[in-house]
Design a protein that fits this description.
With 281 residues, the chain is α/β, with parallel strands linked by helices. It is built from twelve helices and eight strands. The strands form two sheets. Strands 2-3-1-4-8 form a five-stranded parallel beta sheet, sandwiched between helices. Strands 6-5-7 form a three-stranded antiparallel beta sheet. Helix 2 crosses helix 11 (235-251). The protein is globular and about 45 Å long. Residues 257-281 have low confidence and may be disordered. BIS(adenosine)-5'-pentaphosphate is lined by residues 37, 39-45, 60-62, 65, 86-87, 90-93, 98, 119-120, 122, 126, 157, 160-161, 170-172, 175-176, 196, 205, 233-235, 238.
Length: 281
């Protein structure tokens, strides 16, 4: 099987003047998903896997900020410079800045290829603004996957995370270790620790999550979009659980009505249903 072709997300990462090299293949029904969960629960890892399987773009607001902070992109706007200051401390970037940045990239939200949103929305204001944008565009979020994991596990995942300086691939020193220590499997780049993975920032991020982001669980439950998923186990197990939970939610009519058969066929790259590893939370 050929390796999946990754969308470069150029327009998302660098703004609307950038052009993505890979355009959507016009799937019959694009998936539009939101991933929720505490920092370090594995949203980015699952977004990558879901993006490849469902053929949609992984849209992370954290990635936009990190891209703006990269050494080759130092000429940021004052708003971006301010955003990076908040991020380094583990605090949330103010809603007004985040919304300005997302609105600028509304084309990615409208894109007919669909999306997996990771790290946005993160406050009720952001969730309401997204809902309004979707309504205005006549679009609909298909489901919101909320990943759940004990805090002790989360801290282990964050403290061991390493990111490629060059291609931004994510590893873990023990759980998803690179073949050669500190060297990226994908591009040979150097692996580094994220600035906001320092223990003092992690503490602030976890507190901020409880205060500002956890209320979104009830918001999306109220809209009938919420799918709860245990993030325990390997990334592959969590991925299989995500596909099964999505499929089950569609079959049970919890999410926007879709033809479940179509969803199963659409999910499996090889035409088979994903493996079943569903476990109660
Ligand atoms: P963002 O980049 O969104 O960070 P986050 O939400 O804190 O999430 P993380 O990227 O830390 O974790 P993750 O859940 O994606 O886990 P990952 O897959 O990497 O945001 C960063 C900052 O930007 C925010 O703090 C804020 O300042 C700002 N920001 C961004 N969006 C904003 C917004 N909308 N509003 C305001 N401010 C905003 O996995 C973690 C580690 O675990 C990795 O090492 C991975 O390899 C490993 N791992 C993953 N899954 C497993 C598994 N199943 N088993 C074992 N290890 C695993």
């Amino acid at each position: 099987m050929n390796a999946p072709v990754k969308n470069d997300r150029a327009a998302w990462l660098c703004g609307p003047s950038a052009k993505c090299s890979l355009l959507p293949k016009e799937p019959n029904r694009a998936w539009r998903l939101v991933l929720l969960g505490a920092p370090g629960v594995g949203k980015g890892t699952q977004a990558e896997l879901l993006g490849e399987r469902l053929g949609v773009c992984h849209l992370s607001t954290g990635d936009i900020f990190r891209e703006a902070a990269s050494p080759c992109n130092r000429a940021g706007t004052p708003a971006m410079t301010e955003a990076l200051r908040y991020m380094r401390d583990g605090r949330l970037v103010p809603d007004s800045i985040v919304w300005e940045i997302v609105r600028e990239r509304a084309g990615c939200i409208r894109c007919r290829g669909g999306f997996v949103l990771d790290g946005f929305p993160r406050t009720l204001m952001q969730a309401r603004a997204l809902q309004q944008l979707m309504n205005d565009e006549g679009l609909c979020i298909d489901g919101v996957l909320n990943y759940v994991l004990p805090v002790t596990e989360i801290v282990l995942r964050l403290s061991g995370r390493r990111v490629c300086e060059k291609c931004k691939a994510v590893f873990h020193v023990t759980q998803r270790a690179p073949r050669v220590p500190d060297v990226c499997d994908q591009c040979g780049g150097h692996l580094i620790q994220r600035e906001d993975d320092r223990p003092e920032s992690v503490k602030v991020r976890l507190q901020t999550y409880e205060r500002a982001t956890a209320p979104l669980i009830e918001f999306y439950r109220g809209l009938g979009k919420l799918v709860q998923i245990s993030a325990a186990g390997s990334a592959e197990e969590v991925f299989a659980r995500s596909l099964t939970a999505l499929e089950a939610a569609i079959t049970d009519g919890l999410l926007r009505s879709r033809n479940p058969r179509e969803a199963i066929i659409g999910l499996g790259e090889d035409g088979h249903s994903p493996p079943r590893h569903i476990e109660p939370l």
